[in-house]
Amino acid sequence: MTAIMGVDIAKEQADICLLIDGTSIQYQTILNDKRGLNKLDRWLTKQRAQGAHVCLEATGIYDDLLADTLHRRGYRISVVNSARTKGYAQSQLRRNKTDKLDAALIADFCRTQAPDIWTPTDPERQAMRALVRHLDDLKQVYQRVKNRIEAQRSSPHVLKQLKQQKRFFEGQMAQTEQRIREHVKRSTDLKRQRDLLTTLYMPAVVAKNHNAILKAFAARLEARGLAPKQCAHRRLRF
Questions:
Q1: Which of 97, 167, 169, 232 has its CA 20 to 30 A from that of 70?
Q2: Whole-angstrom distance, CA of residue 118 vs CA of residue 120
Q3: In terms of domains, do 44 and 92 share one?
Q4: d(CA 190, CA 193)
Q5: Which residues does residue 15 pair with via DSSP β-bridges, in sequence order?
């Protein structure tokens, strides 16, 4: 018996489509938490689908718990770029879009395309990813607070509290950046990657300062809102 499961995952829940031998179709919806995953495991056992090939789209955050948990329980996992499933849907002329239909599409994609099996990142990299994501979130909130400070004209009380929030997030960002530096120092592999990126980054910075074409290219990128390091990475590919 061949069991393939497509998962359309979101923050709060996951919609499941289970294919048995490519013909029998079963649907299930679970909460995207530990209780929901235990429910899913019991349901798959009842369907005799233990060890199914499970396919889901990479969301960056919401897929982590499901992928890690099912991988530990012996399921084969594929985490694919949503652009691939979107392209597959277009090739199949599928235009209707609901969570249930998306799960069915992902299951059919897995059945016909046989995507590579995913393996989880090591705990060291997972911790680094969590720190970097947290720092990105802090920066976004910090920028919103700064924008509100610049726009605030009517209430001194609101302005005072916004400035307090600004200082708070500055402290949080500084602490998180320090944790990232410490984490890299403790990891030989991460330190090696950092040194490699630095080696690549510095020639791009020098090229910007001494090459008129690259300087103009960098100015266009910066005008589009790209950060300096993003601009440097683009210049490396120029």
A1: 97
A2: 7
A3: yes
A4: 5
A5: 8, 29
Is 127 in the same domain as 161?
yes
CB atoms within 10 A of CB 15: 21
Q: Look at residue 114 and give its three-state secondary structure.
A: coil
Contact assessment for residue 66 and residue 56, using Cβ atoms and an 8 Å cutoff:
yes
Q: What pLDDT is recorded for position 235?
A: 43
pLDDT of 238 reads 46
Q: Give the number of domains in the chain.
A: 3
Q: Are 68 and 10 contained in the same domain?
A: yes
Model pLDDT, residue 228 = 54
- Co-location of 46 and 105 in the same domain: yes
**Boundary of a domain, candidates 113, 145, 177:** 113
For residue 152, give Cα distances in angstroms to 143, 160, 165, 166. 14, 10, 14, 14
Nearest of 53, 52, 62 to residue 82 by alpha carbon = 62
Question: What pLDDT shows up at residue 17?
Answer: 95
- Which residues span the domain enclosing 231? 190-238
Token output for 58? 């990479």
Which residues in the chain show pLDDT less than 50? 233-238
Q: According to the 3-state scheme, what is the secondary structure of 175-195?
A: HHHHHHHHHHHHCHHHHHHHH
